[in-house]
Every structure is written in C-alpha cells, then in structure tokens.
Amino acid sequence: MSSRDQDREDAAPEPRRRSFNEAAHKLPSSVPTQPRPTGEEEHEDAAELSAEAESQIDVIAHASRAVLALGALGVVYGDLGTSPLYTEQVTFTFPAAHHITPTGVYGVISLIFWALAIIVSTKYATVIMRAHNRGDGGIMALAALCRRLRVPRAAMLVTLGILGAALFFGDGMITPAISVLSAVSGLEIATPSVTSLVVPISIAILVVLFLLQRRGTGTVGKLFGPVMMLWFASIALIGLPEVIKHPAVLQAIDPVWGARFFLDHGLKAFLALGGVVLCTTGAEALYADRGHFGPGPIRLAWFGLVWPAVLISYMGQAAWIMDHPKAPLDVSKFNPFFSVVPSWFQLPEVVLATVATVIASQAVISGSYTVARQAMQLGYLPRLRVIHTSEMEGQIYVPIVNWMLAAGVVALVLIFQNSNGLANAYGFAVTGTFVLNTILFLSVARAMWHTPRWRLALLGVLFLTVELAFFLANLAKLLHGAWLPLAAAIATSTVMLTWRAGQVIVTRNRNAKEGDLNEFLDALADAKPPIHRVPGTAVFLNANGETTPLALRGLVEHTQTLPSKVLIVSLVPRNVPHVLSSRRFAARRLGHGRCQVLHVVIRNGYRDRNRIPDLLKLARKQGVLERNLDLEGASYFISRISILETDERDMARWRKKLFLLMARNASSPIDHFGLPVERTVVMGSQVSI
Questions:
Q1: Residue 671: is it exposed, middle or buried by C-beta count within 10 angstroms (0-12/13-18/19+)?
Q2: Which of 199, 380, 604, 633 could make a disulfide contact with 608, Cβ separation 3.0–4.6 Å?
Q3: Is 262 left (phi over 0), alpha (psi -120 to 50) or beta?
Q4: Which residues lie closer than 8 Å to 341 by C-beta, 6 or more apart?
Q5: Which of 557, 549, 554 minimizes the C-alpha distance to 531?
Q6: 118, 161, 171: which is closest to 440 by C-alpha?
Q7: Angstrom distance (rounded) from CA 234 to CA 570
Q8: CA 617 to chain centre
C-alpha cells in the first residue's frame, strides 16, 4: 500500500467516534521515506477522496453551542479582540491619516469595516471553514490535504505551508510583545507619572508569563472565556457613548468613504493599509482552531459578540479623534483607545486589557508548542523535549521553544519600545499567512469539491486583491521592522526543510546498512550452530518492516541469542490529526521456523501521543497482539546513530553542518518514545551523510 493510499485509508469515515479537542496550526504530510506496511492490498485512490467522505469525519460537540462559543472567546478571539488597542493608534500616525479630516477618519473606519467583512467574516468564518482535515483547520491542514488529494504542484504547496507555519513562529514572538506593550501603555493615560515604567512592567509581565508555561494552563484556561466576554462587553460599552454623541460615524460603513480616502491621498493611503490590516490580526485563529470547537460556535461568537464589539470600539475611537483633531500630531501621547475610557475606569481597563492580552499571548505560545510537536512527528524537526502539563489533550510544554520565544519577545520590547514600531513587523507576518492560506484553499477546493474554475476565480480575485494590497503595503515597511518576521520565517523553514532533507539521506544510508529483514531472518533460521531462543519479550524500534533494526543485528551478532518474543515496532506518522482507533494498529509475522518475529505498525496522527509502551498495551487490549504477551516486563532496544559527515554532494556543506548540529542536540529517543529507562538497551552505530 502506498503512502497516499494509507492517508486515504486513515481518512475513511468512522460513523460514531469523532474527536472534539483537536489542535491547531498543522504541519504537512510525512517524510517520503517513511515505511509502508506490507501484506495489504492496494485499494481506493487518494484522488477519489470525496467531500462527502471527509465531511462525515468532523468535530462533534460535547457541549451546547453557547458553551463552546464562550470557550472560543478565550481561545480563538484573544488576538482579534485586543486589536482595537493599537490599530487606530498606528493607522492615524501614517501621513495619509495624520491630519484629521472627515474623509480621512471615515475612510480609515470604512477600510477597517470592509477588511473585517471580507477577510474575517467572509473568507475565514464562512468560506474557508468548509475545508478541513477530519475537523482540523489551519494552513498546515490545507497543506496535508493538498498532498493527499494529489493537487497539482503539491510539493510546492506543501513548502508554502511550511513557510506559513514558520511565519507563525514569528507571530509567536510579536503577538505577546505588541499586545502586552499596548495594554500597559494605557498607564501613560491613566497615571502619566509612571510612563517610564511601561517597558519594564511589560517585560516583567512577559517574563512571568513564560516562567508559568511549565505549569500548564488547564486550570486558569477555564477563565479565559468569561474574561474575554467581560473584555468585549467593556470595549463596546466604552465606545458606545462616543458613537451616540457622533452618530455620523456610522456612515463610514459605506465603502464610498474608503474609495474617497484613496482618491484624496493616493500612495499615502495605500501605505496606510499597513496599519488598517492590524484589525485582522488573529483571523487565522478562526480557522486554525476549528478543531477545538467546530465551525458553528466559532461563527456564533464572531457574529454574535466579537464583530459588533470591536466595530463599536473602532467607531468610538474614530468619534473621539474627530473631536481631538490635533491628538495624532503628538505620536508619543496618542492613544485613542484609552483616551475614550472615562477617567474613573482607566486604571481598571488597563488591568483588564493586560489580562486580555496575556490570554491572547497564551494562545499563540501554546500554538507554537503544538507546531513544534507536529513538526517533530512529521519529520521536519529533530526530537525535542516535550512535557505534558496535564491529561488534557494539547496541554504540552516544549522548553526550548518556550525560551527561544521568551528571548525573542523580550528583545522585541527592548528594541521597539512601543506598539507603533512593532506594528511594522506584525502586519507582514499576518498578511503573508493570509495570502498563503488563500492559495492553498483554492487548490484544495478545486480538488476536493470540483468547484468550477469561474467560482474559484471570483473568490481568488476578491480575497487576493484585498490581501495582496495589505501585503504590499507592509512590504514597503521592509526596512522598518517587516524584515523581522520574514527573516524568522526563512530561517525556521530552512531549518525544517534541511532536517527533512537530511533525514531522507540518513534513512537511505541507514536502510542500506541494515539490510533486508527477510534475508536476515532466513539466515538466522539456517544458522549453524542454531541461534538460542531465550525467555523474554524484546521490542525493537525501526522505521519499517523491510530492513533489519541495527540493534537486533548487533544483539544476535554479539550474543548469538534471540528472545522468545521479538516485536519490531514502526511508528508511522499520518496526515490526519488523529488516526481512527480501528485503523491504528497492524501486525504480521515475519520469518519462519524458530526465528519468527512480529512486525507491529502503529499509525499516529500529528496530534496523537507517541509513547510506545502505552500504544503497545492498547494494541494488546484491542486484540492485535496476544493477550498474554508480557509487555510489563519487556525490554526495549534502540539503535543510537552517530552521523558522520562525508564529501558526498547530495546536500550543501552548510546544510550538512546545520543538520549535524540539530542531530547532536536532539532529545533521547528514550524520552521521546516514553520508554522505561530501566528496561531500555541502547546500541550504537554509525551512518554517513
């Protein structure tokens, strides 16, 4: 069975059991050199995957839609919901909107309204939500679908998906920095005497946030939804009096004002889009977190509360700006969000805003851990230490990712000092993800639903016209901070692609050194004197069932013995969040006579845990393995590979150096696969690259 056919099999519907709490920001399909379980007949082609079959495997609600919508407020809308803190503050410092006129103010609000309407309400909340990978959303779910559906130029699209995931790591640094800094800057309005403490307080909050990551967010996470509901209620109630006093601001909904803004200011208006796009930051979360709540509750939260609340806030700030036309001239003191807040409520609102931005930051940080783990499981990163902070699915902590993000966030706050500077970097990461997402979605829609090209063309023109305009406006700020997420994305994607390419070479060379497993077993059966079978169960980890584990070969050569029960276990990553339990395990006997072994295939989704002892016990429970098989006392054998650099030109020398550096710092397979230390034997070997 081919790798694509396995993906097709894994995607087959299971009518009853579906996963509710699946995670976001997925990575693409497995490394091409991953094993193919044999002994099964090839069947249904991946290209025949239908929308009907896929739609049957979706998120199933374990609570009412209202409860799930409340949860979505805390997980999905933290970033979008805190955008009013800095969007107009940044936009009205651009030359086109700097001098306050009705055309300028209404034009900016019109652009904000239609950006939210087209990108968030139409694209993410309505259209793109239909495409999912067994309920899972996000740019990497689209990349996985591109591969499984044999979309033309799938390899290029998957690479774009990796670039999108890499941009997310940059977003993971910028979101906490700009959000917390914007919230704490409210102290400049509430208590001007502590203005000099804004940066130190922001850094202190962020450092504490990263220090607490190891403890997990399971307990406080229950408060995220109610806190964000309170946040949205506050920004709506604060902005509403200004709108009531200046009802003329409501006419900004008319797109004519946006057009007049461009006609009056030309290129300057185009550059101002770099500030307007900040109102959409976090829009990707609507789709990426689809697997947590399902499309219905996410849409309910957006249309029922989030969109009206943020619009009232934007319009209230605009009304205040009309009353204070000289305010944007003093950029250092210009803060329309907190200026609208009544003086008696400014300090409580600063506290509430800080809590809301911490929630927004937490979602991005947790998402970064998820992306890193998915990359490991799919062969795009070396093994990293992963700590499960609770029994809840998705509650993980990756120390190296945490501290790299922490260092980046603190550096950003120290370098930029305010949200205006960070906005230049933020917009580029957001708009880049938007464009890549649309490209992948159009490819998937054509392959999955056979959507007519003219309909896709209309959607493409609508979405890409808006998104490319935002992207190009931010590209103009390349030398003023936009280079940061671009550099981070290029560096991260280079690391991921280098590791994958190196793994392909090492796997090829390792397979050649391991030799054919059937030939090895035949030689054992005919060995003179015969190999001694000793009591006990031995588990050997190997990438496939065709080659001989080096640890098994070494054990036999050095001891001339073979345990009475031998399991060769292959963990095969799949392109779906969770592999159906009925299709997760497969086993077959290899060899003949006294030298038989059992090859066990474990198919793992990119959200499934990979603790081998627990998975083998589950396979025994399901009847795939013998009921009396002694797994509690089994010994585990792993091959510890030393990689040697050679002069072969199958990879650039600098990439070899990078690959070797990552390989040397990979975590132990004992920790990665959850093996019992006291019953694990490590046998060394060398492979060249």
A1: middle
A2: 604
A3: alpha
A4: 186, 189, 238, 349
A5: 557
A6: 161
A7: 54
A8: 30
Least confident of 111-120, 420-429, 553-562: 420-429
Q: How far apart are CA 387 and CA 397, in angstroms?
A: 5
Paired tokens of 584: 């997760």
- CA distances, 672 to each of 544, 613, 627, 679 (Å): 18, 12, 26, 15
pLDDT digits (tens, 9 = 90+) for 138-165: 787 788 788 777 788 877 888 888 888 8
180: closest CA among 365, 333, 24, 310? 365
Residue whose C-alpha is closest to residue 176's, from 148, 140, 219, 212: 212
How far apart CA 292 and CA 298 sit, in angstroms, is 10
Q: pLDDT tens digits, residue range 431-479? A: 888 999 999 999 888 888 888 889 999 999 999 999 999 998 888 777 7
Distance CA 39, CA 23 (A): 33
Count of residues in the chain: 689
Is the Cβ–Cβ distance between 584 and 9 less than 8 Å? Answer: no
Q: What is the pTM for the complete model shown?
A: 0.75
Using an 8 Å Cβ cutoff, are 329 and 256 in contact? no
Residue 17, helix vs strand vs coil: coil
Per the CB < 8 A criterion, the answer to whether 599 and 565 are in contact is: no
Average pLDDT over the chain reads: 80
Query: Which residue, among 353, 355, 356, has the nearest Cα to 340 in the 3D structure?
Result: 353
Question: C-alpha angle 20/147/58, rounded to 5°?
Answer: 20
Beta-sheet strands, E only, within 356-502: 387-388, 396-397
For tokens 């692609």, what's the residue? 497
Q: Which residue has the tokens 């994305």?
A: 489
Alpha-carbon distance of 483 to 422, in angstroms, equals 11
In the chain, CATH 1.20.1740.10 covers 65-499
Q: What would the two tokens of residue 470 be?
A: 């935002």
Structure tokens at 309: 């609340």
- Residue 306: is it exposed, middle or buried by C-beta count within 10 angstroms (0-12/13-18/19+)? buried
**In this structure, are residues 91 and 252 in contact, taking their beta carbons and an 8 Å threshold?**
no
Element (H, E) at 308: helix 307-323
Terminus-to-terminus CA distance in the chain, angstroms?
A: 29
CATH number of 65-499: 1.20.1740.10
